[in-house]
Amino acid sequence: MKYYIIAGEASGDLHGGNLMEGIYDKDPEARIRFWGGDCMNEVFLRRHSSGQNCGLVKHYREGAVMGIADVFAKARKLLTNLRNCKKDIIEFSPDCVILIDYPGFNFRIAEFAHKKGLKVIYYIAPKVWASREGRIRKLKKYVDRLYIIFPFEIPYFESKGVKFVYKGNPLVDAVDKSVAATECRRDFFKRCGLDDKPVIALLAGSRKGEISTMMPVLMELADRLHAIAEYSDWQFLVAGAPGRDMDDYSPYLGGRKYVKVLFGQTQSIIKNAEAAVVNSGTASLETALLGTPQVVGFIFGSSLTFAIAKKIVKVKYISLGNLILNKLAFRELLQKECNAEELCLEVRRLIEDSRYRQAMIEDYSLIREKLGSSGTSSAVATDLVGYISGQAD
User: Fold this and answer.
1) Confidence at residue 368, expressed as pLDDT on a 0 to 100 scale
2) Do residues 320 and 101 make contact, with C-beta atoms less than 8 angstroms apart?
3) Residue 294, SS3 per DSSP
4) Which end of the chain has the smaller Cβ count within 10 Å, N or C?
5) Which residues 6+ apart lie within 8 Å of 29 measured at CB?
6) DSSP 3-state of 177
7) Burial of 25 (0-12, 13-18, 19+ CB in 10 A)
8) At 5, is the secondary structure helix, strand, or coil?
């Protein structure tokens, strides 16, 4: 069968890659054409066996936006991408269109594909429980099969009368099957040419806008900690985001020898760190699953963007781990609170306060328990292929 998959961000690319593995397992002759990133492309190049006109159409880094101002600045490019995507779908003529999160773009594609008589699959439900609840109408109208990945989404979508399939959370697979899960600290340091010294992980986000707002704060944090005698020989490892390169980070490094940027090592950096500063998103949940104490720091671009976000976002927390437990398992420092001084105090507490650290680790165990066991990507692929082939309801 033929599958057209659209992922617009790093987390969607990660989950899209794992889903593609499952599809190829269940449908070895699958022909897949996709918008995504390095993870999805690696799976395609390794697993694809036949068929023309398959593979990566556009990398997500070419379309990612952050904040209201960025949306307006890139509006023409986004509209061009939408137009090209619709044309490409028609030419490929897939058996289904699989949309992974990325609602601003994907809802438009869902409507288009539905009107063209194509089966529309939404994998990883858009976060309508957090904002823009009006999109539920579009889910009901344009989506044939919806896969959700968080336990707290079950009662929410049930209350809204939205049909769904829940097979667990694919991030459990992604973490448990990673190199970080089995590689020892010494081997990680040796492989990456690092000194055998304690590590603080710094995750500035995956979008260029996030990096430009977070890196100055993270570098000031590194300076403050480095100036303290107990931390003067520690290493500060910046996890280079997928789809980014050193040009995105080097303007902020300023020759700091105690700061290094590593690409393709995010989970290993987190796993081997004493503490992590995380720019929310999927990475904060990865950090919880990997067991590293963390603080989330997030800056919503401009003050206007932050003001709008406060008006439309309905959840108490921005971090998935905190939402899963419905309590503050780890702190969230937002906008003006996300500054070097506050982050420094919190990182020191994560490292130096053993009771505080242990309580967080115990909450992490509860998060993992609520997310369920491994095998989600395979289970979703089995259900999806069965549904598309008419062998499942």
Assistant:
1) 95
2) no
3) strand
4) C
5) 1, 49, 50, 51
6) coil
7) middle
8) strand
172 Cβ neighbours under 8 A, 6+ residues apart:
289, 368, 371, 372, 373, 374, 376
At 306 the three-state DSSP class reads: helix
Residues with Cβ < 8 Å from 315, sequence gap 6 or more?
129, 130, 323
Segment (H or E) for 147: strand 145-148
Measuring CA to CA, how many Å separate 201 from each of 124, 222, 233, 273? 27, 10, 15, 6
Measured distance CA(356)–CA(342) in Å, rounded: 16
Model confidence over 215-256: pLDDT tens digits? Answer: 999 999 999 999 999 999 999 999 999 889 999 999 999 999
- Using an 8 Å Cβ cutoff, are 239 and 265 in contact? yes
Per-residue pLDDT, 110: 98
Report how far residue 283's alpha carbon sits from residue 265's, in angstroms, rounded to the nearest whole number: 12
Which tens digits make up the pLDDT trace of 29-86? 999 999 999 999 999 999 998 778 899 999 998 765 444 444 545 678 889 999 999 9
Q: Cβ–Cβ contacts within 10 Å for residue 6, how many?
A: 26
